[in-house]
Amino acid sequence: EVQLVQSGAEVKKPGESLKISCKGSGYSFTSYWIGWVRQMPGKGLEWMGIIYPGDSDTRYSPSFEGQVTISADKSISTAYLQWSSLKASDTAMYYCARRQDGYNSDYMDVWGKGTTVTVSS
Amino acid sequence: DIQMTQSPSSLSASVGDRVTITCRASQTISSYLNWYQQKPGKAPKLLIYAASSLQSGVPSRFSGSGSGTDFTLTISSLQPEDFATYYCQQSYGTPFTFGPGTKVDIK
Q: What percent of chain B has pLDDT above 90?
């Protein structure tokens, strides 16, 4: 079964660092891009960026570039999203999803269950 | 960035109703348009990709149409499990932006 398993909920203070993970299984992890999507409380979905674990090629949304770092360790089939200094405004649910890009199509077909990040003093 | 808009932002409907949700892109995106369903507390689920292709396992009452800048998601006969929020997403160019969502609830 193809699945993405995300790390557990986090509660952090402003200024702290954090790295959350997304582990793929049931498919060739290095052959598909992994994307990250933010959902702030009560709000819609925001595309943050994607990484190709095969060569770590990474693309960011301008809204998130410089605010987070997306990385991957292909040896353990895991993608990461990290912050060096959290803000209260980073409080959100974060989803990872597998990107399926083919001829005339490009979509996110498998999603993790999400990681809740709460930043509060 | 390509901006996506959806209408309506919310709607109330009854079981058995035909429901149509519209999505518009700020520039042409060919058929690089996807639809997702999200229920409260759950991850989004892919329904339609490439504007009109039904994802495996998704009921045939869901259909998508459109190309260029204007797209439509139709639920032919609304079922109780379809009450959710629906998002369109363009995948023509990064960032792959989502629409603001359409919440479908029970009348």
A: 98
